[in-house]
């Protein structure tokens, strides 16, 4: 009886899970289409280009759908079984409540493995291609390059600082970069300007306008650009965390200063990818134990909505808490799972 009911339960949940993935995939893609259709129409994007662009977002959307479809399928299945009194019949046949959930653990682990591989490799690659395709094929512009913040370098008795360094695009040589918030300290005085240019080929910094403060403290406005020799080489900044594969993120983390915002964001993203792969398993526990307490399908629909709203609230808030240091990155990444695991354990204790 126990084995037969377990197989019967799995057959009940499997098509609901597949349907849930397709449903949420359709809803998420509709949301993405509505957000980009204006740009596509304005730039006369062809249907093939639009479909290509949307295909690059599929890994990201699919990852979310694979996770949120678990509580949808489990709760809807138990709601239907409760409505037809099949759960009560299983109890009467000697099936213990929690034993019904064991057959669902292995499929949840399989889904979790797919979620991890997708988040670690396919989603970052898709995000990178999406940004590149959007700019080069839709906007007909150069792809914005990552920027270097708070640069500092000492050389030949001079000290160079810049608040921001941007590689120039739109046909400019790759050796040219724009400088923002520039200060150059030399034995002859300190030079400052709001902007400048770094020519990596000529190995020079050029400041446009600005001021010079001599050793006696006299301030003089610069009437013409001034150039300094500067031989440092700045490596291309790493891509954003959502465009970096897991090995790339680990390499970035080793070069970042701990307790900085960039470090916390990268560390959180790494931890989140691992945590998300265990979310299907946690959802089986939480949704399964809640589903066993349902009395009809209407309660199942309400439980699905409650699950998804709570999950999205925690999942979307956690990155900001980690970025500002309000929560350790590991705790922030696992926060949704911890909340639902605690709920599942409390429900399991009631059903024991």
Automatic annotation (TrEMBL):
Residue ranges of the TM segments: 9-26, 60-81, 101-122, 298-315, 327-349
Entry's Gene Ontology BP terms: lipopolysaccharide transport
Protein source organism: Deinococcus psychrotolerans
KW 4Fe-4S (keyword) present: no
Annotated coiled-coil segments of the chain: none
Membrane topology according to the record: Multi-pass membrane protein
InterPro entries: LptG/LptF_permease (IPR005495)
Protein name as catalogued: YjgP/YjgQ family permease
Alphabetized Pfam families for the sequence: LptF_LptG
Record's subcellular location: Cell membrane
GO CC aspect terms: ATP-binding cassette (ABC) transporter complex
The entry's keywords: Cell membrane, Membrane, Transmembrane, Transmembrane helix
